[in-house]
């Protein structure tokens, strides 16, 4: 069977934090597509509609039907990370978005690959709140798919190793290349494709993280300004692979 894999989501799936030399994001989904083709020994078709800054329901409303229109065999979905950073978020509403994706995948005969995001709380302000909301979201989503062994699960939130600073980029909110490789390895294992062992902890230079006031000036204050002005880091951005690209074995 030929594989046609499409990814939808936010910055986690777009690949922010794992930038190529030209500045373009790569990330776990690109890596998983390449690893999948390598494991099969034949090309696969790959698309990625994820855009940074998107909340869970806008991902569903803006990306899901476009992704299904490509007639994929597999669709991966993650969302809710941006929702959790906002006051008054309803965890049940985010979980409803996951249920909607599963419902539409069922209707179209598409295999869902379900991911939970990596846990950044250890390095962020409001860490206890983020940890609690992430735990609640993970439990709520897993409850929605508890009766569905056919849903592929790549659960990153419980991975305590992945929470260590060496897997995170300068802003502490997005993973670096090492973190994205670890997530890609988990996805490939969940798909039964197997991942290169070194992807679980690729060697590389440690990311130098800013501390104190310098961190707040560089990363927290710009985020607050976007919230106040109702802007998103993804405004004006287009999907990096809105149509199929062929990924050949390396």
From TrEMBL:
Residues 7-181 form the SGNH hydrolase-type esterase domain. The keyword 4Fe-4S does not apply. SUPFAM superfamilies: SGNH hydrolase. One of its GO terms (molecular function) is hydrolase activity. InterPro entries: GDSL_Rv0518-like, SGNH_hydro, SGNH_hydro_sf. CDD domains: SGNH_hydrolase_like_1. The keyword Hydrolase applies. Coiled coil: none annotated. Keywords: Hydrolase. PANTHER family: GDSL-LIKE LIPASE/ACYLHYDROLASE, PUTATIVE (AFU_ORTHOLOGUE AFUA_2G00820)-RELATED, GDSL-LIKE LIPASE_ACYLHYDROLASE, PUTATIVE (AFU_ORTHOLOGUE AFUA_2G00820)-RELATED. This is SGNH/GDSL hydrolase family protein. It comes from Microbacterium gilvum.
């Amino acid at each position: 069977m030929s594989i046609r894999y499409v990814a939808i989501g936010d910055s986690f799936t777009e690949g922010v934090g794992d930038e190529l030399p030209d500045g373009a994001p790569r990330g776990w989904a690109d890596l998983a597509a390449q690893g999948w083709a390598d494991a099969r020994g034949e090309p696969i078709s790959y698309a990625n509609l994820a855009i940074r800054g998107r909340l869970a329901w806008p991902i569903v409303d803006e990306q899901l039907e476009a992704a299904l229109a490509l007639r994929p065999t597999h669709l991966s979905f993650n969302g809710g990370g941006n929702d959790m950073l906002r006051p008054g978020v309803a965890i049940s509403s985010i979980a409803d978005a996951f249920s909607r994706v599963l419902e539409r995948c069922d209707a179209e005969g598409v295999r869902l690959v379900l991911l939970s995001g990596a846990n950044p709380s250890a390095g962020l302000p409001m860490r206890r709140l983020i940890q609690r909301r992430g735990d609640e979201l993970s439990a709520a989503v897993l409850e929605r798919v508890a009766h569905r062994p056919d849903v592929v699960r790549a659960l990153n939130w419980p991975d305590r190793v992945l929470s260590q600073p060496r897997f995170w980029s300068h802003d502490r909110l997005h993973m670096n290349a090492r973190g994205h490789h670890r997530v890609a390895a988990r996805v490939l294992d969940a798909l039964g494709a197997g991942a290169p062992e070194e992807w679980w902890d690729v060697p590389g230079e440690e990311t130098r993280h800013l501390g104190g006031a310098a961190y707040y000036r560089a990363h927290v204050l710009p985020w607050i300004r976007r919230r106040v002005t109702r802007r998103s880091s993804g405004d004006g951005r287009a999907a990096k692979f809105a149509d199929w690209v062929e990924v050949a074995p390396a």
